[in-house]
Design a protein that fits this description.
Order of helices and strands: EHEHEEHEEEHHEHEHEEEHEEHE
Structural class: alpha/beta
Radius of gyration: 21 Å
CATH class of the largest domain: Alpha Beta
Largest sheet: 6 strands, mixed
Number of helices: 9
Distance between the termini: 32 Å
Mean pLDDT: 94
Helix content: 25-40%
Strand content: 25-35%
Number of domains: 3
Low-confidence stretches: none
Shape: elongated
Number of strands: 15
Length: 278
């Protein structure tokens, strides 16, 4: 199976792909950015794509909601991954030798407490990907450089972990979606979660009327995100995630939305991932 990811082998996206497809032989299609990931999947260069959609600390990745809309992708599943960060360098290096730290800007922010305490004079350099920072240090034999990256990156790129668990907040999780084109496989058995997009009439109470449908049909609203509508300044669409225990109530809710919500898009029905922090 060809899986497009943002980043390179041993990145968090790679780990998410392994979690979503355990035991499967995966051919990674490495993409330098999310827009390139979207293009690769749309062009048929990958069978599916794994894409981060929100982080427990940083919130929603808004451009990726726009990617779903632009390419009309279908959500096939999800997983949550705890973000554990390690400081790693070439074998034989010590923390005192490090003068430059490379990583994705979010990883640098999420480990800044450790970095400021242990490496107050080190230069922090932003990179496009955590694992790619590790790969670069290995490929160019950069002494005095360290990467903030997943432990898997040290194993893959031959680096030594100087410090593990350097993230400031241990309850840091990222939600990843597996998405496909509209010609992807059928709805998986046991689906109990859905992702929808809709607009509402521009009048008082229109959004409340939609939310009341979810309430009345016993759907659990786990996410609501407003996204600007391109070409309509200060008008917004709404992306929501809903969960249910009775599929019949979900179908009833979808029927009752007609007339209350406008331009409804069903991005997919799929099995809810285990919330591993509960």
């Amino acid at each position: 199976m060809r899986v497009a990811i943002q980043g390179v082998r041993a990145s968090f996206h790679d780990q998410a792909a392994r979690a979503l497809f355990p035991g499967r032989a995966l051919e990674l299609v490495e993409c330098a950015s999310f827009p390139l990931l979207g293009r690769a999947l749309a062009a048929g260069e990958a069978d599916v794509a794994v894409m981060a959609i929100e982080n427990a600390l940083a919130g929603s990745i808004l451009p990726n909601y726009s990617l779903l809309e632009r390419h009309d992708f279908r959500i096939l599943g999800e997983t949550y991954l705890r973000i554990e960060l390690c400081l790693m360098a070439l074998p034989g290096q010590a923390t005192a030798d490090v003068h430059t730290v490379l990583s994705h800007p979010m990883a640098l922010i999420q480990s800044e407490e450790f970095l400021h305490r242990e490496l107050p004079r080190a230069r922090l350099v932003e990179a496009s990907d955590t694992a790619d920072s590790a790969r670069l240090i290995h490929a160019e034999r950069l002494s005095g450089h360290a990467a903030v990256a997943p432990r898997l990156a040290a194993d893959v790129y031959g680096l030594e972990v100087l410090h593990a668990g350097i993230e400031t907040n241990r309850l840091n999780y990222t939600r990843f979606l597996v998405v496909g084109r509209r010609d992807s496989a059928d709805v998986p058995a046991g689906a109990n979660k859905a992702s929808l997009r809709f607009e509402t009439p521009h009048r008082p109470g229109s959004l409340v009327e939609v939310l009341e449908v979810f309430r009345d049909c016993d759907l659990n609203l786990t996410k609501i995100q407003s996204i600007p509508i391109v070409g309509k300044p200060y008008q917004y669409s709404f992306h929501v995630d809903v969960e249910w225990s009775d599929p019949a109530r979900y179908r009833e809710a979808m029927a009752r939305l007609v007339g209350r919500a406008l331009r409804i898009t069903h991005f997919g029905e799929y099995a809810r991932a285990e919330r591993i922090w509960d």
